[in-house]
């Protein structure tokens, strides 16, 4: 009753809305006629609200808006308040404003002309200096679904797409979809904006723009080519929702661009392989050819590698997205890694379980092995929801094989007894499927099922009957006993399907149960009229079959049944009766068919195939809505088949400007051997590569997803080892124009590639074509360098041994690089990594327009080396042995990631000390020590200086170790100051500013300091600073600004220090670095140094 | 009835067929001369991930709706209600329901359904995960995510939804960011707000959103700097009738409550990280360092969050802390059954087992129980047939026992399956897998934080079949 009158009330409300909408100018009170007295209270309220909105007090307005939002939330119409609300759009109160926005977005479509009043406010806000205001204005503007403002929106989006703030650009990406749904005619313009935003390097924008791409122009796959590698590399740092969208898009992309990794038949680029292996031993080549028939595109690998860590995401959607990517793209051998993560998701919420189990079910049909180790994770708990139970059952059935069937069946026995009868019935079907799939257990299952026939529950019995029927059909052996048993059951079973099944069985095998069959028919004839249709049909069936085989006993019964059925209410049954009568009962009119009646009725029937309901689901992409529903959802994009021939991979080459030019000159000039070696080693170890993927993978991941500077470090450390020409030439390249640099990268690429696969002719020509726009001399130089590597390449064998030794050494960071691009494939191996990879969004904030210029950062010699030693071991506690250490500020000779430390050991005792060495080390994780050589003896009074290397892992943790002599052990520790964890670098002032621009936000530490009078002028202050930290000087155009640059020893992260001297003994100190810890510590130390005498 | 209408926050009940007609026929407003009428536009492909959201309580009333694009009529929920009425239990409502023009994806969160309306192909997990994130945010803001709390904070809910989703695509879902945008309600603040008229909406862009650490607020300040970690392990197990373990595994989480000033960079290391078989992390954890060094290195979000969850490799044998002796039987003739359950300690590593609760879903035919317990007390709900026996702390000297008879409906076949026992328990100061936190280091800030690690072992889905 109450709900009735309420709905009437609601009705009233609706009707009022009509009235008020029809005549907007009329006051609502007149609209609510006397007929709707019930609603009047509310309408009074509306009046109140209007008054409140028109008052001067923000608090009243706010209260009114809150109540209006409440109405909206309940789905009540409050559109007649529009004029009063829209006036407040320009309010200063932020909360009020937000609520007005909520209202506006909800009702603007209905009140278009009034909504236009608000547009100018937004247009003004779009120019606001605050990015938040710009972004929110664009958000609301684009959410107002008023067609007349489409041009304004278009303009706003275009502007916002080139906004400096990535947050605004992200909003622009969102607005694209909104505009597109409002006016699809704008598609072309919008695609332009998408194209532009796709180039954006901000992780903030990436997810949103890919989303827009998927909505607006999912078929324009060509827009992705140039951004593919960037997207792959950014992926880890994109927010989780964006990751899902990007992964799904990349899955589609990869399916159109790469060759299938699943191919059985061999596909390899004959020429390359041959030239490559010719130099090698023959049999090795052969085995390699067999193993490595197919070579994956490096870009394909890049995608797989960069998505793998995301399997560890806490967001289940991301994990699922990666899982489906691996399922659809990865080589069969690699897919296995997803199973663990998918099983992990089963711990999540019920809804997540449901989706994940569905996907596992589909996977498990095709690849049993993947989930077999996790069999027990699919065991059913009594508290699971029914649909979860059934899915688990499905998976258990799919996973069943000879080895585990006994365990599974034991588990099934428990399920059969479940109180949840739907589930119990499903279990019986599952047992049936196991029985047909695994012949060994068919008899066991059948016996088990027969036992179930005596079960108290009807559903269970009925289901068992049906399943037994199916099983018997598949069995050629005699099962007379079972049929007899079932015939007896007929009296008790009432479930129609089960009765029908028994009848069908008896009919089908009536020759095996000769005596019983007619008796059954007799009983059924009695109850015929009260049976269900499906049972009646089977009775007819049985009668016909018996009549044909045993007409003596059953003729009359059949006649009787046919007569009964003739007058049945159901036309199906009447039809069937007529048909059967004509077919089996001989009379003069009966046609030619009656001769074959027996053959027709008792033809051997093929056994039903018990199939998984998930059999056909693999036509849909995993993880999609369509897959879940098993029907094509609207907007579902079919995953294309793998292409026969891969499209040109060079499309993905980006004109990336990377700071890798440093080792380019090496190729042609100084150290040609090294790169060639590592290339060779790569090819050499081709077979092992897969096996050794463990360690290699992680190292490659390091370099791939590492920060820009890290990568730079890698290269510079490998490149600048002793070669001065390297640094000079790359410094020179700095000043070169951008286009020049692009070419350099290309060139590098070619060199790189030629070393790898000697596919010189092809790539060479293509590169020179591409670079033909540049100057001629450039391209000539390029050929030179290429041929240089080529020659190198021709005489590899003699160097094989040497090469292998080199491989062992971890310092060769080139190896890591190679990992990027395993051998033959015709795609160049330009990794856009450093330029794009930056995990920090901050870079994008300001450095966007600038970030594309590469810089040369080289380690220089320290400006100043403080000689002040630190005490390591005092002679008193060292029983005469004293030790002091200091930091010579030189790059460590043992390992580029170590800080070199010089330890001076003195013997201040009377006897000589023997066997000084480093004993047990207690190092925090990440720290490493390169020990000095054992000092056999130290005479009294003498001292010796040894050098050691410590990798402090860019932290000021102390390295604890024991200094041992022959007889004693002393625990000592070396703790560096933060300034010693750096290596000075040089760069131009311009580069400095560029880099500094990238390192703002949380990467910037600033403070203002009061200087000690002595330090107020430039020189002493600089001296203080270089004393504190191992920084390199950067030339500065201004006298009062001093700049210093360094990189951290371990990770190679840039550390930039700026000191700006001001009047009256104050100065501003700025430290920019990604390592926030180092930044703040450095700031503090310099500050202390400068404020002390 | 009159009362019901006057109450402002009354539940909106309506008959959907009626409202459907009304909403569909709602006339379009006056059309401007030059603009094309909205009806003429091509609306066939409205691209939105999440089109609308309906919140529905367990009595099938819609109590909140929010649309991110054009309004979708409430009548779309009819399909949901249909599935709802079919399902015996709210848990059994299928999470994905297709309707002719839309798809409904729902989650069930503490008696509330969150139903998202989808129009196009989308990853269902994407929506489900997002809805859970919404529910968690509500929980975080209001302390509980129930119909009442949502209705009481309707405006904040709306503001939150507005920020979390733009055009159907998730925008800001990190609780730290949302809290900067919209301040959670506190009693004090709401009092102050009503007096001063100030707002609970932040007026600056959360700095986190723009940095590389979108999960942390900027400018955090505490007078007491504390970092607490809770290592919580749950034993999932199925014990069969005879007491042998069918299946057991350990799932753990590390929840952190971090109140540290500034921008601390933490490193948490374990004594035995190799135990962890499968892990998933909060986005703040640097995956590379885990891969290479097996330490958790992260700049934490402010406040409480789940740092990681892990799974202990299944090769390890799982210690089962308790054993259960049970004797439950139903007699066909006497319309009664016997119930006798005793719990005792098994492998507890010398710790006390606390908080033991045994939950039994008795068969439908059981009418009532007549039991006596030596420890704790028990309740039986004759409607849901759930028997809950709250034992509390285990006393190893005198084992808790619950014994007595069950009265059953007569003339009905006896249930063939004995009910399974679901056991909850808690063991303080023990991580059953043996996982141990080694140390926590902090970089980037100077102060010394107060650090603490707590270990708890709980029973997860711990089921004893009888």
From TrEMBL, chain B:
<dbReference type="Pfam" id="PF01217">
    <property type="entry name" value="Clat_adaptor_s"/>
</dbReference>
<dbReference type="GO" id="GO:0030659">
    <property type="term" value="C:cytoplasmic vesicle membrane"/>
</dbReference>
<dbReference type="GO" id="GO:0030131">
    <property type="term" value="C:clathrin adaptor complex"/>
</dbReference>
<feature type="domain" description="MHD">
    <location>
        <begin position="224"/>
        <end position="465"/>
    </location>
</feature>
<keyword id="KW-0732">Signal</keyword>
<dbReference type="GO" id="GO:0005794">
    <property type="term" value="C:Golgi apparatus"/>
</dbReference>
<dbReference type="InterPro" id="IPR001392">
    <property type="entry name" value="Clathrin_mu"/>
</dbReference>
<feature type="signal peptide">
    <location>
        <begin position="1"/>
        <end position="19"/>
    </location>
</feature>
<keyword id="KW-0653">Protein transport</keyword>
<protein>
    <recommendedName>
        <fullName>AP-3 complex subunit mu-1</fullName>
    </recommendedName>
</protein>
<dbReference type="InterPro" id="IPR036168">
    <property type="entry name" value="AP2_Mu_C_sf"/>
</dbReference>
<comment type="similarity">
    <text>Belongs to the adaptor complexes medium subunit family.</text>
</comment>
<dbReference type="InterPro" id="IPR022775">
    <property type="entry name" value="AP_mu_sigma_su"/>
</dbReference>
<keyword id="KW-0472">Membrane</keyword>
<dbReference type="InterPro" id="IPR018240">
    <property type="entry name" value="Clathrin_mu_CS"/>
</dbReference>
<dbReference type="Pfam" id="PF00928">
    <property type="entry name" value="Adap_comp_sub"/>
</dbReference>
<dbReference type="InterPro" id="IPR050431">
    <property type="entry name" value="Adaptor_comp_med_subunit"/>
</dbReference>
<keyword id="KW-0968">Cytoplasmic vesicle</keyword>
<dbReference type="GO" id="GO:0006886">
    <property type="term" value="P:intracellular protein transport"/>
</dbReference>
<comment type="function">
    <text>Part of the AP-3 complex, an adaptor-related complex which is not clathrin-associated. The complex is associated with the Golgi region as well as more peripheral structures. It facilitates the budding of vesicles from the Golgi membrane and may be directly involved in trafficking to lysosomes.</text>
</comment>
<dbReference type="GO" id="GO:0016192">
    <property type="term" value="P:vesicle-mediated transport"/>
</dbReference>
<dbReference type="InterPro" id="IPR028565">
    <property type="entry name" value="MHD"/>
</dbReference>
<dbReference type="InterPro" id="IPR011012">
    <property type="entry name" value="Longin-like_dom_sf"/>
</dbReference>
<keyword id="KW-0813">Transport</keyword>
<keyword id="KW-0333">Golgi apparatus</keyword>
